[in-house]
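hiii, so i know i said id send this last week but things got crazy w the move. better late than never?? heres the sequnce for the chain we talked about at the cafe, plus the structure i predicted for it. fair warning i was half asleep when i ran it
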Amino acid sequence: MEKKRVYKTGCMLFCLLLMGAVGFAQEGMPSQDESMEKLSHFAGEWQGDGWMMMRNGEKNEFTQTELVEWKLDNTILVIEGEGKTPEERKVHQAFGIISAGKSPGEFTLQSYLATGQSTTASAKLDSTGQFIWWFEDGRDGTIRYTTIVTKNTWTETGEYSRDGETWRQFLGMELQRMSE
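okay and structure toks below
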């Protein structure tokens, strides 16, 4: 009986020490709430037009909708986007999850396409309020998206670079807020 009590007491002390260590390790790190709050103006339903330059040089126009919602007690933003041609044919369908990174203003964006492709992208909110996310594309280059969201307007550009210095725009999009 005495061994059980000593064992239980030891387990409780270990758990308390572990909880304290976890709390200490997280001290000084920005809270997810603080980091994610900086993206609060993204939430809502958006609709508008855009264009994409194809590899053959053809410029294709589309209409785009983006639904951005808070999930998991406002610790992540989920984004569901869909692009259609003027003939209503789907040309783009994506799902993304934005979560806070390790440092203030840094984020991770997990994106999934209807084609089965997915990527984990680095992201940041720069000092001017631009949300920039990027990833290596597997063709010895980097793809970068820059999004500027104001109260009622979402403007996004997509660019490609082989060397990280010279960028070529392949996407332009301008959306209007439909609802919050």
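btw The longest strand covers residues 59-71. thought thatd interest u
miss u guys!!
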